[in-house]
Every structure is written in structure tokens, then in C-alpha cells.
Amino acid sequence: xxxxxxxxxxxxxxxxxxxxxxxxxxxxxxxxxxxxxxxxxxxxxxxxxxxxxxxxxxxxxxxxxxxxxxxxxxxxxxxxxxxxxxxxxxxxxxxxxxxxxxxxxxxxxxxxxxxxxxxxxxxxxxxxxxxxxxxxxxxxxxxxxxxxxxxxxxxxxxxxxxxxxxxxxxxxxxxxxxxxxxxxxxxxxxxxxxxxxxxxxxxxxxxxxxxxxxxxxxxxxxxxxxxxxxxxxxxxxxxxxxxxxxxxxxxxxxxxxxxxxxxxxxxxxxxxxxxxxxxxxxxxxxxxxxxxxxxxxxxxxxxxxxxxxxxxxxxxxxxxxxxxxxxxxxxxxxxxxxxxxxxxxxxxxxxxxxxxxxxxxxxxxxxxxxxxxxxxxxxxxxxxxxxxxxxxxxxxxxxxxxxxxxxxxxxxxxxxxxxxxxxxxxxxxxxxxxxxxxxxxxxxxxxxxxxxxxxxxxxxxxxxxxxxxxxxxxxxxxxxxxxxxxxxxxxxxxxxx
Length: 497
Description:
Number of strands: 24
Helix content: 25-40%
Number of helices: 14
Shape: elongated
């Protein structure tokens, strides 16, 4: 019996030991499970907090001009995207890009640093602070084109003007396809364009100076752009012959930007329709002979002197610095009035200086600051029927006009196309006054006019001929049109953490 009792006691002791080990194992498993759950919670919360910090950093960089207001727009944006003020704290400061050196708000330039801290209850481990840091640098850019009222007419979808139709015909483009091409709002990424043209290899970054120094024909440029746009491209056939293929020009002739300093153009693009508009005029500069002939009452011979320029500009640290200068197209027109007077007019021309990009949230509060200037409108009147006067040519011009610090405001998010027109002066009336004044100085012209009704009638038709010329070209005297078709503040605030 004693042996039995001893054995029973030993068995019970072993059973208790086994239960203790099992209990400890279960408790360890539970602790491990809780620990895994706690760590999983921390990992999930860390990812969530980092997401909020990233969004807030991009918003703060986009709103860098309002740093002195405490980045309130960025704080509001963070709250809309998950920031909980009961458990989270957020700090937003200006800093030097690539470092953790904080700057006072009034010293903000292009970079903002965000710290978001969240107290996370990690199961029974207590509260664990999760911290996320993100830095963003704003690299806003705008793109667009400068032109005369001819550009504005094209933007208004009023059909092609006689001059644009003639350009398309001279370039041997199907007019319906050409009109669709000019009206295309598709964006052409400049890095992709450089790759298509063979300027850059795969994996290279956009080097604007190299791109601008590339010589192309309009056909090469348009085919590359159409390949980039892909299925969204308008249906247009490039003929393979004529000026569109044989006239080469530098891309800097139709695309303007400032490549000095530390300008960065990551993600920059231009509108396909604008690229077609500028490259078509660049090709038209090579049309020989008397240029483009327009038969509208009096026959007009039009020569394209220079194409319009697209522009791409990125924000500088210093407000008011010129970050891009682009010009409008300029054309020369010659005609003979009643077979007696030869009138030559240079019309169009002007320039815009992009001085600053003001990025704010919401983006509808953003703006571009520009200076505008028109080129003098000039005319030369030859009187070959009066060879004895000794002064067969009369010259006149109308001075240029300008406007400074013009704010082109109100760009919704996402970007839309807008345009701003500036008319420097009413040039036609002044031009006619100047011509008549100059004609009056001709020695015996009054006697000749008295005995030559045809010449007198031809001079009387002069004003109507000028109006006819400008109307045929789709121009108004001394007018500069600026179209900004892409302004990207928020989406180019790049995370640099």
C-alpha cells in the first residue's frame, strides 16, 4: 500500500508539472500572439502615419508661398486624409532640401519638412509613439504658347483662318486632319519627346539645353509627338515631302525656356496642338518664292518671318525673376492695290516674359505673373507709277505697346486651358494717318493725284486694303495672346525623403 500511495503521489506530481508546462506554453503563445498583434498594429499605423506625412509634405510644398501662415491649408489637407487631432500631432517647417535643417517660415523657398506623431495603443504593451517624417520640394512648372490673335481664333474653335488653311495646304496636310491636330489638347511629355527624337537614351533624365539644341523638321517632330500620344492622337497623315520634311530648325526656335541656374523640368510637357501650331509656322518659313498666296480680293503674298514659341517655365527661389521669354509669330504681307500701289506690311510679333509662378492651395488661387510687349507694326508703300518723284517708297509704323506685371490668375485643379489677350494699341488707324502724312510730303504728288483718278482711287482704297489684310490673316494690330495650357503646382511637389 505505501508503494501504491507513493506511486500515486508521484503520478499526480508529474501531472501537475505537465499542466504547469502546458499552462506556461499557452501563456507564452498568448503573449506572443498579443505581441504579434501589437507589432502588426504598430506597423500598420506607421504606414498610415507615413502616408499622412507624405500627403501633408506635398501639400505644404505646393503651398510654400503661404508658409508664414503656418501651412494651414496643408494641415487641413492632412486632417481630410486621416490625421486625428486626438491621437496625432503634426509639425510643418521649412527646411533646406536634403537636410533636416529647419528654417523660419519667412525663409521658406522650395522645401517643407513634416513630422507626424501618433500615440498607438499596442495591445498590453502600452502606448507606442509612431513617428513619420517626410520632405517635399515644389517644382511647379507651366507651359503654353505666345501668339497673335491668329492663335486665339484657333483656340476658339472657329475653324481655320485663311492663312492657317494656306499653311496646311503648302505643307501638304489634309486640312481636316490638320485642324484636328491644331485642336488637340493631348500633352506631350518633353522627356519622352527627346527619347523619340533620339536625343536621350532610355533611363536618361531630361536635359533641356540638349533638347533645345536639337535640329528637327516639322515632320520628325510631329511624328514623334503623335507616337507619344498614341491612340488619343488625331488622325493626320504627314505627307513625306514638301517644307514639312525639308525645312529644318532648332527646337529653340519654337520652344523657349531658361536653362540657366538650377531649373528642373521633371514632368514638363506641352500641348500637342500648340506644338503643331508652332512647328507648322517654322516649316512655313522655308516656303520660297513670294511665299503663301492668298486670293481674297487683292492677291496677298504672305511670308512667315518667324514662328511662335511655346514656353516651359519652372519656379525660381527669387520672385520676379524672368524664367522664360517667348515671342509670337511674325509675318510679312505684300499686295498691289488697283495695279498701282505696292503695299508691304509686317504684322504680328511680340513677346512675353514669364516672371513668377505663384502656387497656392486651392490651386484656383494660383497665378502667373507676366510682362507683355508687342512689336511695332510697320508698312512700306511703293508708288512705281510715280517714278519721277524721286521718293518712290513711303514708310510708316506704329510703336509697340506693353503691359507689366499682368497676373494670369485662376487655374483650377486639375489644370485647364486659359488665355489672356493684350492689345497694345489700335494700330491700323495710326498707320494710315502716318502713311497719309508721309504721302503729303511728296513733292508734286497732289498735282499727280488731281490728274490721275486711278491713283487717287487706289490711295482711297488703302485703308480697306489694310483691314482686308489683317482680316485675312486673323490678326488685330499689335495684339499679343498668351495661352497657359498646363499649370501644375500640386502634382510636381516631389517627395525627397
